[in-house]
Amino acid sequence: MEIEYLEHRRDGQRVDTVDSIVYYKPLDNSDSERNRRLELKEKIFGEKVSQLYRLLDKREDKRKPDRTFIEGKVDKLAGLVYSFSDLQMQCVEMDGINISASGLRMRVRRPFLVGEKVELFMVFLPQVDLLDCQCEVVRVTPNAGGSGEYFDVGVKFIVLDDEDRHKIIRYVQVIINGGPH
Description:
Blueprint: H1 2-7, E1 15-17, E2 20-26, H2 31-58, H3 67-85, E3 90-91, E4 93-99, E5 103-108, E6 117-124, E7 129-145, E8 148-159, H4 162-176
Antiparallel strand pairs: 1-4, 2-3, 2-6, 4-5, 5-8, 6-7, 7-8
Helix pairs in contact: 2-3
């Protein structure tokens, strides 16, 4: 029974990658963090979104886009801008990234604790897919190498939207199949 569990514990396939860049920082779900995100969203998108809604309201088309969908996309863009501009974001070691649809292993210089929450911002090359997510640390393994001490940190995704999960699955499949055809 234990062997079967180990064989099927992950969703989908897992690959090592050198064509992705991962930034990380400890997750801060404080009120001040949320307020900073909202301020940035309003500063960048506030008037533009209001204008977009006014234009859509003038359309008499029965297939008006869903405002919830638009708001979700704007939130995603604002979150990506916020994450990418955050000075606390650190880049992981490029030769230590292993990814699947359920989680990620990354090589970092900072020790984490199992159970700690982490915010990730990822860039998949060459198509430059951007995604952000929240993770929980499930494993930490200290290592030492030629370039000093580092930690292999395994995380599972705890907040990852379906669109981003599918980006990861597609990315993994491209690597497994030897690149885009």
